[in-house]
Amino acid sequence: MARTGHEWRAEPYRAANAGQVRAALKALAKAGLPRDGRFADVGCGSGEVAEAMARRGLTVDACDISESMVDATRARCAALPVTVARQDARRLSLPSGAYAVVHSSWMLHWLDNPAHTVRTMARAVAPGGTLVLQYSAGQPRADGFALRDTLRAVADRPAWRDRLTDAPIMFHQHPAADVSLLLAAEGLAVSPVEPVAQDLGAGDLDRLRAALRAATFAAQAEVLGDDTDAFIDECLAALTAAGALDPHNVCIVARRPPL
Predict the structure, then answer these.
(1) CATH number for the domain harbouring residue 87
(2) Per-residue pLDDT tens for 47-98?
């Protein structure tokens, strides 16, 4: 995860975002995983993916911008072949050609400019290796960004405007076609982009609120406190009215040809 001015907290995220972890593991399983080799987890969150990959037999290098997430991942994976480091994805550093799998889920849309991050991840993929990348707001630029624009309009309402001055809505749109071109320029063969279904809490509003508090609106929740759910409810109502609930989640799988 990467976002300026906000420290992601591991425990609320872990408790509320099992759906994001499931989506990451599903994408990795579908892409096909080796039984050994090195695995890079960029934006590792609270460590569930790193743990699962290590238990499979992979040697994992995990990183996250959040000290809380790094500590949680380190604790979860203490007895496993997992190395955890604090890194800002905007200045990501990975050894070139070192990994059988490079993975990042639900991080890229927090970056204003993902080019360095995407190129670094691509260059880290070993010959015959795979990159698996999932994120939100991967729709074409021409389609606009109704979800972000609607949320910003709610945040600008009188009840919230002054309180959210230091916690603006910060999602960024990165068309999957543009990201795919970056990967291809680094020598990867990119599979057709696939949409990823969103997890809306299976009709459980409390579960949905908890997930949004811990991830999408984590920065706003720190400022709004007990009023966070009222803000979330206004956002959901506005998104529904605007027909803008779709986060345009995408999954990109790319492979470096073997030598």
Answers:
(1) 3.40.50.150
(2) 999 999 999 999 999 999 999 999 999 999 999 999 999 999 999 999 999 9
Q: Would the CA dihedral through 120, 123, 126, 131 be positive or negative? A: positive
127 is in which domain, residue-wise? 10-140+171-201+246-255
Residue 66, in any domain of the structure: yes
> Shortest CA distance to 57 belongs to which of 98, 22, 14, 101?
101
Rounded to 5°, angle at Cα 149 from 176 and 112:
50
Give the Cα separation of 144 and 142 in Å (integer): 5
| Burial category of 150 from C-beta neighbours within 10 Å (exposed 0-12, middle 13-18, buried 19 and up) | buried
Q: Are 221 and 7 in contact (CB under 8 A)?
A: no
- CB within 8 A of 149, min separation 6: which ones? 244
| Cross-strand bridge partners of residue 63 | 42, 85
Number of compact structural domains in the chain? 1
In this prediction, the residues of the chain whose per-residue pLDDT falls under 70 are 1-6, 200-203
Query: Is residue 58 situated within a structural domain?
Result: yes
Residue 215: the pLDDT is: 86
